């Protein structure tokens, strides 16, 4: 159990670091788009590649933040029924919560498994998106971000399933930005 | 079993799993994965689909509207703009019975034009409007109900994350969805105000307690003050919606401009420091990741439905039994109300749209209008028990222990009913949603 | 009954190339198979994003989500660089049929195009040219090259590079579906697209002046088959698919040319005016551009492929078919 807790702390630190990076990317997105608008309208000089950069940054935001979203239990779910069950049958609720986290661990693992050959391909071939001579960006960082993110997410779900720490009776209100 | 039956079973399995508390994107992705595996008898195929879904669902330009408008809403809330609007509205409505309620609705409607979130509205107005109404001897259920009911305006009046999500899954223009949301949003606000007026006449005890005095609030403002407080908000609305309407800005650019302007306002009013700025960015990232991961999983689900041929089969079913457009809409509204008991708005939209879009599209309906119907229908669920997110936010924000969750739900019920009525009107008269479209 | 084959594309089924695929290619394949006493196909058609979106067709066919389909090649400058051959050689041909035939001959004479698809686990059947020529649609009349100074123009991909030599003209990136809005609202004053698309998106309402600059016809589609699926087919069946694919290609080019003239008439009907750019101006525009064809060819040559040879052969094929290049991209040093 101590080993798991140690691992869990390591995963947390990595998730927080990725999350901070992703947060800076949000800022970069705001700055970049505004600069493009200003440059286009005032100087008749739109930035080439803003469109592609936006696509690229979006992937970074989503996948750098995802493990942290999972870590702090803010992945979208509707745990009303689980909360009700936890009041009468806390042990049963705990078991269900662990099964759910295990299944989630498998699913995130599947994403990592699926994306791994894609990373090998894009790394090997130097595949890019965009138009040569205007703006291009390589694909591999996208695949790498997805691989790292889904692997870490899977690991975080695994520690949740093993330690069973998460309390199902706790409700998360701001999930999905409703 | 036919593919259609397998597909239908998997939809039901998914809903059951979600009700049991499985993370919604995991439920959507997992069930779709297994269903395709069974249907095509190949493990490689669902794996390939997963690859594509994860790889290309997030690399879309219009997705950038989600973090940008989320950030703008968070910054604007931190800048205290919600409180300002409320004071402005109170000065307008204070003479009327139920006036504070009307002011809350009006303030929410205005605030909604700069924030895309019902959570933000619910928490801001719980803090400012509920204590004031309690002080003025309003019925506590009414006080919280009006805040809950009007909080949904945040997601109907543009900008709105839900309109963006629909635009993405239905491949409609985000700008068109925003324009289409304006009149329905104003209509719903008007309907709320009218409902409060009627309730104050016919069932005054629901609105105010016995012996209520309609004192003037202390912080009434002069015209100059009104103007000063309204200007920043109006400036933001003009930048964002004006930018989109005139086409000077794409919705993505309008979001970025709004975010930057909101930040400038917050700094100018000394309402933000480095820590709260960082927190707003962080929160933005979390919300963006949660929504886009959900959209990714939903794209897996809609492809599963396509492979199983569920929408086609449903369409054939409707044709065979001569069920027309009206029957489809009844089915849609009932399904959304049912899902709304437990699911959040984004999940409802993502489950319902892939099922119904292929059915309604051949009927020649306007898909922007359809989006407004889906978004409003899905938002009724914010107010209905057992899981109504707006009501939960209010309960968790409120400091008064005598107000129970049940009180919030009971207070919100009349407003949910008004929403349903407005929804039916919007279904009957599509022009209300489409008239502003270019 | 018959052998099941999934046909995919991300575009809606009403798209011209899918209408032709559905109503001509697929039934014609089955008709000829039946005639030859071979097993017919049971085609399962999935269009409009039900399995993949337009950008996802290449990947979908590689991974076996579909057995055959129509790849929109302009999305894949990285994976399918050779397919840009027509896009980097503007101002030569505005005849879809000629371009389509030349592209397919290049595909047969050089290994590059087929190899690029082979490394995406696909077998190339034929090209699809669905547009006659890119033209310039603007809010104000443009009669000469000089009128284009400081013009902001909406475009995408290699089109944007056509503007590079023009004094002060700038390209703004956008999708076909954004052009109407971009022009209407003054983000740009013009857009580069072809008449049929201009008609579909009602461009005449916002940009009623078409400059017939004949920037050129471009191949944007390829009909391909998943390689694993292909390997399970008998040589006779493979031959039938290949033959019908050629007929499909020529039919599509014919339809593209028909639609172009119908669309130009509709554009004028809707209040638009069409002005021809003088040959001299067209030549100076071409001359002002950087030689993107040689940039492209050099890039392929450097990767050990036949860039320069393909470029040379392609332009000569167009000339042999009766076209006169406003600029011969391959012969200059
Ligand atoms: Na809003
Ligand atoms: Na609910």
UniProtKB/TrEMBL annotation, chain A:
Q: Which residues form the Tripartite ATP-independent periplasmic transporters DctQ component domain?
A: 29-162
Q: Supply one GO CC term from the record.
A: plasma membrane
Per UniProt, the keywords (alphabetical) are: Cell inner membrane, Cell membrane, Membrane, Transmembrane, Transmembrane helix, Transport
Q: Where in the cell is it found?
A: Cell inner membrane
Q: Which GO terms describe its biological process?
A: C4-dicarboxylate transport
Membrane topology label: Multi-pass membrane protein
Pfam families linked? DctQ (PF04290)
- Main location as per UniProt: membrane
What transmembrane ranges does the database entry give?
12-33, 53-70, 95-117, 137-158
| InterPro entries in the cross-refs | DctQ, TRAP_DctQ
Q: Which GO terms describe its molecular function?
A: transmembrane transporter activity
Quaternary structure note? The complex comprises the extracytoplasmic solute receptor protein and the two transmembrane proteins.
Give the function comment from the record.
Part of the tripartite ATP-independent periplasmic (TRAP) transport system.
Entry similarity comment: Belongs to the TRAP transporter small permease family.
Would you tell me the protein name for this molecule? TRAP transporter small permease protein
List the source organism.
Pararhodobacter oceanensis
TrEMBL record, chain B:
**Which compartment or compartments is the protein found in?**
Cell inner membrane
Q: What is the official name of this protein in its record? A: TRAP transporter large permease protein
Assembly and partners?
The complex comprises the extracytoplasmic solute receptor protein and the two transmembrane proteins.
Q: Does the keyword Coiled coil apply?
A: no
GO cellular component annotations of the record: plasma membrane
Q: Which family does it belong to?
A: Belongs to the TRAP transporter large permease family.
Q: Could you tell me the membrane topology recorded for this protein?
A: Multi-pass membrane protein
Keyword terms:
Cell inner membrane, Cell membrane, Membrane, Transmembrane, Transmembrane helix, Transport
- A single Pfam family, by name? DctM
Question: Which species does the entry assign this protein to?
Answer: Pararhodobacter oceanensis
Q: Say what the protein does.
A: Part of the tripartite ATP-independent periplasmic (TRAP) transport system.
Tell me a Gene Ontology molecular-function term this record carries.
Answer: transmembrane transporter activity
What transmembrane ranges does the database entry give? 6-39, 60-80, 100-130, 142-169, 175-199, 220-242, 280-301, 321-339, 346-363, 369-394, 415-437
Q: Where is the TRAP C4-dicarboxylate transport system permease DctM subunit domain?
A: 11-430
